[in-house]
Specification:
Chain lengths: 376, 242
């Protein structure tokens, strides 16, 4: 089995198009959550979301096209044989909204695999790829799948691109489910009351070490372990006993060949909903015992970017490993009793070179990645 | 690593079938008939009727495949995974949801919204059959199911033991323009490392992802492995070993 290096990253979020600015703003505790102007929020639970500044669609095409245009400007050079894995929850659902309203719409943007094909052509990649959709774990499961393909030797270069845009479709749905927070979300806080939607895109170029060395590409980090699971309990609510997430974390650690004591930080899903956050905290306590591993979440700064979340959070986690510090959790002020000692509002030193990243989502899915710092 | 195909189930315009049944596999063009609970499950299932049409179709394919493999019944959760391909997914449900949104923003249906992710039927299948492995939609550009099959094969070969690979699509919503696409229907294959019943065939996790050969096209594979096709098409080539 080959090792899996990450040799390039890019991210477009509510905190801008630059990964450096994103990192600096996260460390400063900045939030990209603002009043939403893309559509009327009258009748919904909140008017807040974390939208990418200046992201607007002027024609009948999906907003995702514009988002991906901006992301593509920051991609590293790509070999033509790179396998593309796209990841999204709802892709061009904004075009379906237009269809439903009788407005002009680019219906080519609606099928699930649409943007994978568009991206592949735009980037000049000649290997047919595929699209992963696994709710809010789409990005991290796509990364695990890409890593698996590299590790097995079936490919030596894989580009994972994860994306989702804020649409009224999604916003109204989470509002109808009573899942949106009135105020900006407060992950792991005692007073949390729901999530805040966000949007964004991220790309990670994975390579085998042999190929990366041949092409003189510097690794920024490593994917050491990956696993996914299903709670098999409920389609929209997490398992109260955290069984699925515990299973996924255990399998990812086993895959990486490391013990829980070798993990030095956790990038949590941290949506800010009462039950998801508690489920995660219970899972981390079950895995790490009384040891207080620094846990952080970025959704108080970036909103919940759905299918893009796992990939954006991996870009940030790799930077955390490189810098030796994990960001504080924006919106976290008064700790949930289960978060005391684990979650912090301020940046926390990272005392080792391995970090766990988790996501969970509708359909009962859970995903866990074990990330390593820059290979020495 | 050899992986065995131990069950096949499908539901399409021409009806339902299983790998070991006498009906030849086919997913022809045409209108999908409504799927009732009685056609899929012998026992009452109060939730089935409340599912969206996409989930009912997919669940029928999963149930029939597990039954064909002899592993439908369960007592303890098992780390069985599912990888499925879809082109339109739950787009029909999305349009139904948008119709409720159009009435008034505050009246959008949370029940319908819960089924507007293409992977949610996988959660329904996981709950019904106690499947706690990875569940994911993996859609290739051509709609062959090859990427889903390769994902499931890797999971089984990597120690997962058992997984299903499938394709599922309703008919293209009439409000969307015509495009090249496969006929509607659901098809699922059960893949196992250590089969407990005589397998229908075998595969190896080989080939480069994204370059599906005939082996990794799920419809072609089902057409070769199903008993009904072999009996009724004696000139067909049996792929794999049993």
């Amino acid at each position: 089995m080959s090792r899996v290096w990450v040799v390039g990253t890019a991210a477009v979020t509510a905190l801008g198009d630059s990964a450096d600015v994103l990192w600096d703003e996260l460390l400063a505790g900045t939030t990209g959550i603002r009043p939403l102007t893309r559509f009327s929020t009258a009748g919904y639970k909140t008017n807040l979301a974390a939208c990418v500044p200046g992201l607007n669609s002027t024609g009948p095409g999906s907003l995702v096209n514009v988002l991906l245009d901006r992301l593509c400007k920051h991609l590293p050079p790509l070999p033509p044989d790179t396998l593309l894995i796209a990841a999204t929850t709802k892709g061009g659902v904004d075009c379906l909204e237009r269809v439903a309203r009788g407005l002009p719409a680019s219906t080519d943007d609606i099928p699930l695999p649409a943007f994978g094909a568009v991206l592949r052509r735009r980037l000049g990649l000649n290997t047919p790829g595929f699209t992963v959709s696994a709710a809010c774990a789409s990005g991290s499961i796509a990364l695990g799948r890409g890593a698996q393909i590299i590790a097995s030797g079936a490919a030596t270069a894989v580009l994972v691109v994860a994306f989702d845009a804020v649409s009224e479709f999604i916003f109204s749905g989470f509002s109808a489910l009573q899942a949106l927070s009135h105020a900006a979300c407060m992950p792991f806080d005692r007073g949390r009351s729901g999530l805040t939607l966000g949007e964004g895109a991220a790309a990670l170029l994975l390579m085998s070490p042999d190929r990366a060395s041949r092409e003189d590409r510097e690794p920024v980090g490593e994917l050491l372990g990956w696993a996914a699971s299903n709670d098999a309990v409920h389609i929209t609510a997490p398992a109260r006993d955290s069984r699925g997430l515990i299973q996924a974390i255990g399998a990812a650690l086993a895959h990486a060949g490391i013990e829980p004591g070798e993990v030095w930080g956790v990038s949590a899903h941290g949506t800010g909903t009462i039950y998801n956050d508690l489920m995660e905290l219970n899972a981390f306590r079950a895995i790490f015992g009384e040891r207080n591993v620094p846990v952080y979440g970025v959704k108080g700064a970036l909103g919940h970017t759905l299918g893009a979340a796992g990939a954006i959070e991996t870009v940030i986690a790799l930077r955390a490993l490189a810098e030796g510090v994990v960001p504080g959790t924006v919106g976290f002020k008064d700790p949930d009793p289960a978060a005391v000692g684990m979650v912090h509002a301020a940046p926390t030193p990272l005392r080792g070179r391995r970090l766990l990243l988790t996501n969970s989502g509708f359909g009962g899915v859970n995903a866990a990645l074990v990330l390593g710092g820059r290979p020495e | 690593v050899k992986v065995f195909v131990t069950g096949i189930g499908w539901a399409g315009a021409a009806g339902m079938g299983t790998g070991r049944g006498s009906t030849p596999f086919a997913l022809p063009p045409g209108d999908l008939p409504p799927i009732s609970r009685q056609e899929v499950f012998a026992e009452p299932d109060s939730r089935f009727g409340r599912l969206d049409a996409f989930s009912r179709l997919a669940l029928a394919g999963v149930a029939l495949a597990l039954r064909d493999a002899g592993i439908e019944k369960w007592t303890e959760p098992r780390a069985v995974g599912i990888a499925a391909s879809t082109t339109y997914g739950c787009t029909g449900t999305d349009l139904d949801y948008l119709a409720t949104l159009g009435a008034a923003p505050g009246l959008a249906s949370p029940q319908l919204f819960a089924y507007t992710l293409p992977n949610v039927f996988l959660g329904e299948a996981a709950i019904r059959f106690g499947l706690t492995g990875p569940t994911v939609i993996v859609s290739d550009e051509e709609g062959t199911g090859a990427a889903a099959l390769e994902t499931a094969l890797d999971y089984v070969a990597g120690g997962g033991g058992t997984a299903l690979a499938g394709i599922c699509d309703l008919a293209r919503p009439t409000r969307l323009p015509e495009r090249a696409e496969s006929p509607p229907g659901a098809l699922f294959l059960v893949l196992e490392r250590r089969p407990t019943r005589e397998p229908l065939g075998a595969l190896s996790a080989r080939g480069r992802p994204g370059h599906p050969d005939d082996t990794h096209d799920l419809r072609a594979l089902a057409g070769r492995l199903c008993t009904g096709n072999r009996v009724n098409r004696p000139d067909s080539c049996f792929h794999g070993t049993s």
